[in-house]
Request: fold
Amino acid sequence: MQLNTLSPGKGSRRAAKRVGRGAASGDGKTCGRGHKGQGSRKSGGVRPGFEGGQMPLQRRSPKYGFASSKAYLSAEVRTGSLGRCDGDTIDLETLQKARLVGQRVTKVKIIAAGELSRPATIKGLAVTKGARTLIEAAGGKVD
Reply:
């Protein structure tokens, strides 16, 4: 199979309707749009979802949920996974290199979950009370 031999399956694409080709064609003069009114104009028609003045389905159905814009930029890291970072100092850049947080993340909070195997110095990151006690118990410190 080659790109220049690809074509849509037979019958899957309809030919365009050729309008304005004389009265005998059946689609001459008004081209199947009727006479006056909104539908006869070149840009006529209503916007998507419009239901003739009735409250549209999208507006009358109940809404739920919320997508925080901060959620894309913030992340949580467990104390147990801090051992995957190289070096004694752990900051945002170190966490990104260890692939514990994504590249777009700007705020990180370390939470208490799992044991810390070696002492580490935490710089520029938010730390929960429980995580702080675990880090200090392992011989590390939080700046």
Observations:
- The CA atoms of residues 119 and 137 lie 9 Å apart.
- The domain at 74-142 is CATH 3.100.10.10 (Ribosomal Protein L15; Chain: K; domain 2).
- The chain has a mean pLDDT of 93.
- The first strand starts at residue 74 and ends at 78.
